[in-house]
What we know:
The chain contains 25 helices and 13 strands. The chain is of the alpha/beta class. It has an 8-stranded parallel β-barrel, surrounded by 5 helices. A 3-stranded antiparallel sheet has the order 1-5-6.
Amino acid sequence: MTHSLEFRAGILARYKDVYTPEALRALEALAPLDQRRRELMAQRTARRKRRAEQGERITFLDPASLIPGTQITVADARAGNFDGAEIPPDLTRQWIQGTGPATKPRSDVRSGIRNVAYALLSGADGWMFDGEDALGQVDTMSLDNHRNLKLAIARDPLFLDVAEEVASEMNRWAEGFLGHPIIADWRGQLDFTTVLYRARGLHLDDRHIRLQGHGFSASIADLALYVANNHERLRAAGRSLVLYLPKIQTAEEAAFWNSLLLALEGHLGLPVGTIKAYVLVEQIEQCFQLMEIRAALSPHFVGFNTGRWDYINSVSDALAWDRTFVNPNIQSITMTYGYMRTYEDRVRRAMNTPDRQGRFALWQGGMEPNIPVGSEAGVAASMKRAVAGAEREQREGASGKWVAHWKMVHIVRPVWERVGQDNQAGRAFPALTYGPEDAAGLTRLEDAPRTIAGARDLLSVALQYGNAFLRGFQAAALKPADFFGNDDVLYLMEDMATGEIRLSILWEWLHKGATFTEADAATGTAAGDAFTPALFARLLDEEYAKLRQAGNRDVHDDSKGTTLPIARAIVQTYVQSDTKAPWYVDLLNLNLGVEELAVAEARIARFLEAFRKDGTRMTENQDF
């Protein structure tokens, strides 16, 4: 038994295979570092509050200063004066990385582990098994995720039995859609894909562990459980231990992650740098400190990933105080839009700056959320857009990209196959610069539509996502309610980021008096009219009613009187509140397992009261 960590009743007995003696010792070894994590999160909140109150923009760091938590100066980091990690053989070619969790809500092992079989048989070069944005946190899903990964990595007989069954299903689909099977030798295919794991972010608490009476880091829990349970088998098979690190905002936070990795390597007797780490660039402040983040994680760092939704959300949140910064319709904010174009360009330039050993890093492109399910015309049009997006990223210098569904692997991967180059590390780009124009580019807006249809999209998908989250489906196939029943419009695979950005933009439009660029006859809105509280209330009522009336395929019938009303209460309160909540996920996590609206409303009110008072985020499991 552990002495400082407290576990939910019965959880150690139910998950003895996850909370192994080695894993428990690793948790204990890292537990003292949780206090520093709490301090860093308090600094985040204070920094956000100060900037909002003072109208302060994010700036580049002083070149003469030290990166906090390191002995590396900012100038040295920017110049590449550090020793970066070597790219291991199983990460050298990562043309396509799939993403998704290793389990399903409320499933037994045989059902949940099918997710792992689909992933490892997909033909993707890597698969990021998600512990964060796409993994539901209801009940014990985070532990089921770890259990299934451990069984799959160990090639447990149950997993092999499921994999053989799944391989046949995948080939039947491929023969119908592609005209040929995709798996010749299912056992051999299992060894093709590199296993990657995304831990939860520093801002989240674990739902099953507490430390000294308060919440305990979900990041530390995920790191300790994944590495302690799998390092021996992965290394014996000649495989790398690879993590994706999410929601990092600063180089100081990256240095903290580095301290966690070093501490765990030391505890397990692993050589420094055994654990490799990609960093998701999904926070605007990161783009002011890219080389500094790379240097702070230098023994472990292998690359950056450029996402879309989370990054847009971070820009909107960072500029919530600036009434002149108003985003257009979300569909217009592509990777070639204004500030997104600058963001992507800075990432590729940072990856292709050599360290003092002449080593470069990898740039993994963004997510392809399409799923090839729909009408023939709808699928054809969507797949054409997906391939065009991959071709653009490859041209721009990405060494690969993400897909949200295994069926997309064989549609998008040929873009890189035709080029035939393992990666684009070392491709020449202009050196990064750090002047006023560089900073301005990271918040540059462009003229684009802002419409009632765009507002309906934001509301409909935000409501649906909140409902799906509360049911345990943090990865969900969604589309606006106006397109239910229209198979020419495909569902997109969405995760937590889609909810975050939609509520951020709705808050932005409402509290900054955003004006519409087009008229809308149904609401009587003219071009130039503002998004008012009355209009928001009307659209919320109308979009909610559509979901109540939708079929079970789109909105589960058993949610319409339970979690859907709670999702509506969260959306309404978040958007109408004068104080902008930092994360939609906080309000959703607070209400996991709740099906009574009055209970949820009380929790929502307590959260906002505490946050307004002193910046406290209620992140602990209220039902521990």
